[in-house]
Structures are given as structure tokens and as C-alpha cells.
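pasting for the record
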Amino acid sequence: MKVLFARVGYMKFYQGPKPDDEKPIGGGSYNTEKVGHEAYNFLQIDGNLYGYFQPHMQEPYEITLERIEQGYTSDKLDNVLVIWFATNPIEKGQVVVGWYNNATVFRSVQTPKSLSVRENYNYNIRASMNDAVLLPISKRKYTVGHSIQGTKMGNPGHANVFYLLDENGNEKDLNIENNAWISSLVKYVQDYNGPAISSKADEIQENVVTAEYSTGGQGFQSDVEVRLKIESYSMAVCIKNYEDKGYTVKDVSKTRSYDLHIMKNGSSQMIEVKGTQGDGNTIILTKNEVELSKESGGKMALFIVHSIIMNKKTVKKGSGTIFIVEPWDVLDDQLTPISYMYKLS
């Protein structure tokens, strides 16, 4: 298993600097004043993606390929699963933001001379766009590392790179508690079948959803912080509601297009959770959510927590009113298109 974990700054799209997504959040001191090279990690160029991360704090910024494959000595390694992770802007934990399958990893930084569309920024990983997944903000929940108290062994350290082989090229024992998260995370990536950002339409949809949480403050970071807090709060309210009613509740939001799976007395149901500061009369749905509702055969419910109150940067405890649509079958005459993709050629 050839796997590489690479830490980068946090962005919505990694498509280069854009309004409300100007540069990576976090990711080291370089990103404080400048735009980190990872800003272009998911920009498609002739069917390929060119990714970058800085594995170490000091030059040479080389990736140790022999810690990905035992005894490897060449300057590039093919067919590597590269998992990109970043610091969650709210909870400050490390979360998966996307991945490259079947990637080529270069030992040294590549300095392009013909990739002007990405400002000729450096790269050290290359993959086909068809082998890549960039998670929407709402799906960036899978944490990297363990949460065992009293030890950091087994977690990514201060370096932005984490290998499956130790410094002597020996395989780490994935069966011990400190390393158990590694196999689980790789399986999560391999089994993932939820939504991804892969087109301009997906970007527009993500911007529309995030704009719903706009505070008129500091752009992307402020709006994303509010979005993540309201979504987390609404999920907690929904879980408590069904658990109090005797349901077994499973959070599937990391991997599925819906949020919760509830079970009671042999019957089950899918739950889509929405949180809003508004009155709940209208909500924004993604294409995936609409399609899933129509395909659910009446086995899906819409759980809305509306009228949520924000106290500056925190949700007011106890605020919000619950409204449940059950079963939830999306009706076309109740859908209002709020954006279109128009092909010019």
C-alpha cells in the first residue's frame, strides 16, 4: 500500500486566488503574507492536477520516497494514494479535504515553465483529474490521527508529511492502537461515494450554500466558520431529538450524501439536516440532495433547525426551532432555480 499524507492550508476550491477564497488559511507562516503553492492543487490543466505541499521546514524540500515504498531510489514514484489534510478553521483539528488516487510523487520540487495558468507555481505531485476527489466543506469531517490521551506517537507531527514507513524504511504496525486510524482512513477514502467538487457547477453550488451563512464580515473565513458552527449545532440538535425518542442514530455525513441514518423497531430512515438563521420557509438544496430525496422512495426525512441565533462567533445555546418534513419527497413545483451553468461552446 503506497500512501502519503500531506498537510496543506485550508481553501474552498484550491483553484488559485479568488474572491472569498484568496489564499490558504493556515498551512504555515508562508501563507500569512503570501499565497501558498497548494492554492492550485485542484486546478485542472489538460486533464491533470498539479499538487504541492512543503514536507519539511528547511531546504531541500524533498519527499522521502523510500518511506513510501521500501528501498525505492528513483526520483519519482507512481500509483501513490495522496491524502490531503488541513486544519479545520473552527475546531483546529486535522481533517481530510481531498485526495489523489494513482498519483505520481516527485522526490524534488518541480519548477514548471509551461503552467502559466497556475502562475507557474511549483508542484511535487501530479495526478489525473479523474483520479481526484475534493470534498465539499460539509464533508470535511474525517479527522487525521488518533485522540488517545497522553501520547502523540502515531499522529502527524509538526512536519507537513506523514509516511507509513518509519525512518529506517520499515512498515509501521497498523494493528496497534496508535496507528489504527491509518487503515480506517484509507478505507474511508477507498469506500467514499459521497459528493465531490469536480466542476464549475459544483463550485457555484458551494458558493451559493456558503453565502447563505454570510455575516458581512471577513469574507470566506468568517462565512465558513459560521456555516460549520451552524451545521454542527443542527446535527447535535437532530441527534438528540431522535435519541430521546428511542432511535439508534448513526452519523453517516462523512461518507454519504445525507447526514443521519436512524433505526427503531426494525425500520430505518435517512435524515437530511439543515440549519439556518432564517425562518425556515426556504432552504438551499444541492443537486445531490434533490436527487437523493427523489430516489429515496419515501424513506427520507428533512430535519430543519431554523431561527438559530449567533452570538458573535458562537451559536446561542438552546436557540433554534425544529421543523420536520416526514416523509420528504422533493416536489418540482416547490423548487426555485437560483443559478445556471451556461455553455458558451
